[in-house]
Amino acid sequence: MGVQGLKAQLERFYRPEAITLHPESKVGQGEILLVDAKAVEYLLCKRLPMESNYQSEDWSKAYYEAVSAFFQSLQRTGLEVVCILEGAVAGALVSASVDRRAQEILEAHKCLAGPAANMIFVQVLIDLDVKFERALHATDQLVLSYYLRREPEIFALLTNDTDFFVYGVEKLVFTSGMTVDKLSTTFERWRTKEAWAAWRSNRTAKGRAVPVSLMHRSQIAAILGSEMSKEVRLKPRSQRTKRLTSPLTIAELILSSPHDDALTVAFFTEELGMKKFTEEDLAMINETMQEYIDDVAAAQGTELVALKASEDTLPWLHTSVSARLGGAANVPQVLCELAASGVAVFPVLEEDWDSMLGAQQAAAAAMFKDGSARTTFLYNCYTTKLRQLTLGGSDEAWFTPLDETEVEAASLAGLSIATLLKATLAQTVEAVKAAAPPNTSHSLAAMHAVLLHAASPDGAEPTADEVRAALLPGVAAAAKHTVMPAEVDPEEINRLLAEQALASGLTVDTGSALSTGDWMDIDAKDLVKRAKATVGFKIMREIQPWTSAATGAQALVEGLMFRFFYCQRKDDMYKALAKKCFPDMYAEARDGTDKELARELKAITKEFVLEELKKMKEKRTINYLEAVSRMLVPDLLFMRREALKAGPNSIEWNAAKIIWGTAGDRAKEESFEVMHTSENRMGVAPGAAPRRFKHQEDLMQMVATHLTDLEKNSKTLPLHVILATPTGSGKTFTAVMMHLHLLREHHPDAILLYSVPTKQVLKRVGQECEAHGVIYWTAAKHDELFQVRRPYSIRNTSRKKIQSRMTAEEAKALNKSAGSGTIEEQMQKIHETGVKMMDAGLGKPGIIVADVYTTAALLKASRGKANRGSFWNAENLILYFDEPNMGINLDPAVSVVVHNIMRHAPATAILASATMPSWDSLPFWWKGDGAVAKRPSICLEPYELPICKLQILDEKSREITPVSLLGLFKTHAEFLRTLQQEGMRRIVMLRHLTPPQANEVLSDGKGGGSKMRDWMALSGDVRTLRENVEPALLNLSAQRFEELAEAWKEKRVAAPTKAEGLASAISVTGVTMIATLDARGTALEVARMIKGGADVHEVKRRMRDCEKSVKAAEKEASKKKDDDDFMGGEDSGGSSGMLDLRGGLSVSLADAQECDDDTLMMLSKGVAYSLASGTEPLVKKLYLQALLHVPEHVVAGNKRSLPPIHVLVVDYSSIYGTDCPAVDTIIMDDALGRHLSWEDHQQFLGRLRRDGTAVYTSKHTLRCATLGKALAGDEEETEAQRLQRHARTAVLIGVTEHKCEKAKCVDLIKQIELPVGHTFADIARATLHAILELTFPAAKVVEIVPGGLNVYPATTPGGEKELPQLLKDLKQRLAAFKPVLVKGLEAGREQLKAMRAFEEMCIDKNLFKFAYSAGVRYIGAVLKLLYDEELFEEPALLAWAQQKEKSQSSIKSQAAEKFVLAATPFITWLKEAEDESEEEEDDEE
Fold first, then answer.
1. Cα–Cα–Cα angle for 408, 412, 417, nearest 5°?
2. How far is 234 from 222, CA to CA, in rounded Å?
3. What pLDDT sits at residue 100?
4. What integer is the mean pLDDT of 1446-1464?
5. CA dihedral (485, 490, 492, 493) positive or negative
6. pLDDT (average), residues 672-692
7. What is the distance of C-alpha 1178 from the center of its chain?
8. Contacts of 775 (CB under 8 A, 6+ apart)
9. What pLDDT sits at residue 993?
10. How far apart are CA 1102 and CA 840, in angstroms?
């Protein structure tokens, strides 16, 4: 709400102060927390389930409880809470016809709060004795006036309206920047002056923090525009202000000016080059700017009483009515609005629009004094209907519909208030219900009953208890804040989470303890060497603290720069550059009076200039002049960035404009596309030292201050920070930097406990520690025990010398493996070993890298009495929890571990994740035992993510189809609901716009795309660009949405591409990553589809040739050994032991012999896989070497050369552990994708490290990945599901009506229409599935065939008594449809698919929920029957069993594992029968 993008801009340069208040805190006691009520109402309504609405009493109760909990927590802080309630908007500003946009936004939110929500909110305030004031009109002016008059007493204003930044309210807290706990509340409090000054300091040459005036703030607000969602009844400011090109850029240029100058047309047309800007455009900007200035002046000069409802401000009302509005009574919002402006917003569903008309008219007529009646209206923002309630007078401030507005004609001779008003409120409620339609909700009736009492001049005023009883039947008054909340038993939380885990049936494998091979991976010298060669390694040693001031860049060498241009003046562009950028030097040179200068300029060359600059080490000037010479698209963007930094009329500004004017149309068009790519970023200026990112600096400063406070006062509150930064933003780098730059230097006793989500991440962090010379240990779970290990890099190299001074027993004990043990035993043993062996750190690490299970155990043990004096006690630990929400949505058992970690979290904890929401949005158990702690969030908004184009791979139609961002949404309302729901999701969606699409959004249908030529529209960095795209996307009208969605559908780059499986989507320009359940199986499948490389036979041939070569070399070496003249020499046959698999990929024969032929074939095709555990050593080695450390030249530019391993197939856990800069295509197999949460999908999409493509095999899963499961809704019926439904109907008819008569049953199946892309085998499988379904109890669905439900059994199959009859019925039904089944399932691959479908059905039907033994009997009997009926044959069944043996996945289904175990006896019998048959055949021969 408020000014678009203003808060995000201020956050780039300023960090609000985190203040935690609780009952025992001394800070803030007695100060006032001024609450903007509409902000809190919006916050709490948004958190309630979207499926519910005001028609449900449960919703009303839930809302009352949410509001109560919120204000109770605020009161416990010791602050005096004052809430400012909204009244009405001045009628002159109201327009029911203009604000169609607001209606669309509200319609998009399925959670309709309804007209009684405000009354529930006020009821909480009354019950909790919270002071409140009701504004006469909108809250802004009353809030501002109240704040200005009592500023010294005010702790902060709580709001979500960024207009208060512009007004200059000094202390602000936003609802998104607070964490409300049961015992404490953390406020992130802004100092507005400091925030504005920090932004300005970034724009000034000397980085001075100069205050920003009200005029400048208002100008910037007018340029940026206001959000459309601010106020249902307000005419949005942005509708009165012309949408400008690059508003953020213009705002920053305004901020650069030190003077309070009025904006002029010349500023836009001449300085900014906006030639079409007019006086009318300027007048609209100035009008909006003046409104802010006038608002502040009015707030300063108007008495508070004039801004509130009273007899003086509402003289047309009966005195008793105006007294209720101005007092502490709970009156409906509708009455306030009707009384103050003549129009009330009444947000109800269509069916409720007419239900209360009589009560509404009666109340509206009764509130006016005799002779003072006025015309009033009711407006439904959900249906955009406007209805007249009463007829009377009006004035300029009163609402008058626009001429084109359609007004519903209602009978103005409504009911008299006396007809409905009764002696008590309860009686009035019943009377209102009686007069309303039968299905009218209770909340509506109760609200209108209160409305009648409040509008009546003589009616009895209900008490607060009576109003609560009417609105919230059976709900007790909220307890006062002095009543402390009941403590929750942590073990009870664990029990509940464990129950959820049991119900889910899924487990997540994050990897086991580190093996010897894992250790070799971590400290492998070649990998560590490559890590040291990276840019990040160099930056770590040079990086400087972040600052908001614009510092660090070298100044341009103007004299040499002029000479570079002047010596090339025969070219018109260079002549213009010399003349415009250096007018004085140019005039002097042209004057000719200085003969020496003339001779110098005549002799000088551009080569000489560049050589001089190189001698002076002036990198910035050299880079700039080289960019001018090249004039490539990246150079145009670079010069645009430089121009924006320097500002109008600077050398950089003038030069960039001239060069842009010289560039051709093609270069300009390409620039407008390239500017949207992730490569278009603000980098480090040449010659300047690299600096930390702001989020890194914020974290470092926050932790540094906290640790210092802890050292001074042990009772300092714990600091638990959420660090929400995008994937690839350097979370590991941040942790290592914190250790090197803060902990190691200033807090040497502190140990950073780095908790990792998977083994792959643990190894990667270990490699970073190795590269940076960090003293670290690793800790991992091993079965039920733990292993702690010291890396070789920290061990003393004089081991033998040290041991020589020990006794034999001591030396033997040290040489003995540490093995496994409790965490206490392991920590103590490794510590003692490190001390005795004089390791680096002398038995104390700087960082411990641990998996989540070990982290939980170590933290718990660190709080134990026995460890209080140890070096790793809780006081010395700092938790850095990497991706803590990994696996939580798949396996709730992980929630138990995370809860235990947070229960025992140390005084300093950082939760680092790309997908973590704020503390307030997390379940309560994330806060451990709920103890008081400071819980701020540090967020880096993901505006700079690489472009991610979307595609659907339909394996049935064998097509790959591009999908646009708008193509993901079914309706415009769904589009708005998603974008309004949460800012983070809206921002990450921006990456799914292609450059042409983003340009069309920015153009607003006025000639965008390739027609854009305006230099001011060119963006120098992708972040600023997307910040401009975001509001434009949010403001798309329904018409424009439909136009673009259809246009983008038609403008696909190409028609759907023909596809043959996942291999068809593999990139030809970079590395492809495929995520699936069975990584190895999918890798082999994909490898077989890839053309080129070696097949299994070719691999075998190469192996034989290699073995022969090795033997020949060994034989030759043996002969040479006997030769006395043999002196060693060079190994001429060294390559004979290497097996060439593909170009650039050779492996040793020894490694190759440890792999099977399929694995070698897979590697020869450039495919590798990664599993949580069980990855073959050679595959793992190549995976690490060839993918995680791809050479820079492979991924840079547009080169098509691929690394030897260019396809990586990963399971769930490996998604989190893979960080490959060459990945430009990612593919999500729906077998895995359908299980994942939005957060998991975002982690997967984040694997794109450069602009690329994401391919999904299900559109519904793609919608879940981008919108979230709640917003994506239920999956639409697919062709396969439709086919299954038709088969189910046919089978039921055949069984019930035709009594399994074969001819009729077969005919029913033949009548099923075959969907496009399907075969008769699909029909046969669907038929078998429908027949097998009849062995399970009926699902809770509507009966589709009369009597159909009767053929389903009543209980789960497998009971000893029920099984014979079940098998008899099943055999009869199989016989009835057998011709169809035999024909369709003739091929072995179709039988294999049918077997998989049977497995999935048993899992979906929860076969093993009650009795495992019954499930075993059922599966064995059914498989035996299908085998006897010759529907399932041996090869297919054995192939299924073999696949299950080889299948490895980090996500495991308990039910799937039980199915395999249950089928094992039958499979074993089948194998034995096959063996016996083969033996009999051998005997006969």
1. 125
2. 16
3. 38
4. 77
5. positive
6. 79
7. 35
8. 794, 839, 840, 841, 844, 845, 846, 847
9. 94
10. 47
The dihedral over CA atoms of 464, 467, 472, 476, expressed in degrees to the nearest 10, equals 20
**pLDDT score for 1126:** 43
Distance between first and last Cα of the chain = 88
> Percent helix, strand, coil in the chain (nearest 5)?
50, 10, 35
Tell me the pLDDT tens digit for each residue of 1053-1080.
445 676 678 888 999 888 999 999 888 8
Q: Where are the beta strands (DSSP E) in 139-234?
A: 154-159, 171-180, 185-191
Question: Torsion angle, CA of 1189/1192/1195/1199, rounded to 10 degrees?
Answer: -140
What phi and psi, each to the nearest 5 degrees, are found at residue 1225? -140, 130
Three-state SS annotation for 102-135: HHHHHHHCCCCCCCCHHHHHHHHHHHCCCEEEEE
Burial of 390 (0-12, 13-18, 19+ CB in 10 A): buried
Rounded Cα–Cα distance for residues 410 and 386 (Å): 10
Averaged pLDDT for residues 251-269:
84
What tokens appear for 1315 in the block?
A: 């969907």
- Give pLDDT, residue 1339: 67
Reported pTM: 0.87
Q: Quick one: which H or E segment has residue 700?
A: helix 694-712
Q: Are 622 and 628 in contact (CB under 8 A)?
A: no
List Cα–Cα distances, 1018 to 626, 888, 1021, 1424, in angstroms: 21, 43, 9, 70
Smallest Cα–Cα separation from 1182: which of 1168, 1172, 1193?
1168
Mean pLDDT of 1344-1351: 71
Nearest to 1382 by CA among 1299, 1324, 1451: 1324
Report the C-alpha gap between 850 and 1219 in whole angstroms: 19
Distance of alpha carbon 633 from alpha carbon 639, whole angstroms? 10
Q: What is the DSSP letter of 919?
A: G
The per-residue pLDDT for range 773-796, each reduced to its tens digit, is: 999 999 998 888 999 998 888 888
- Whole-number Å distance between alpha carbons of 167 and 151: 14
Q: Name the residue among 50, 206, 789, 92 with its Cα closest to residue 553.
A: 206
The contacts of residue 988 (CB under 8 Å, 6+ apart) are 942, 945, 1242, 1245
CB atoms within 10 A of CB 83: 23
Instruction: Residue 1018: name the closest of 686, 656, 754 by CA.
Output: 656
For residues 1412, 1418, 1419, 1422, the Cα torsion angle rounded to the nearest 10 degrees is 180
Helices (H), 378-463: 417-420, 425-435, 442-455
- In this prediction, residue 241 carries a pLDDT of 44
1092 Ramachandran zone, left/alpha/beta (phi>0; psi -120 to 50): left
Beta bridge partners of 343: 377
CA–CA separation, 1188 and 1191 (whole Å): 9
Listed residue (1421, 1434, 1418, 1430) closest to 1478, CA to CA: 1434
Phi-psi region of 791 (alpha: psi -120 to 50; beta: other; left: phi over 0): beta
Q: Which residue has the tokens 């991976």?
A: 521
Residue type, 265: V
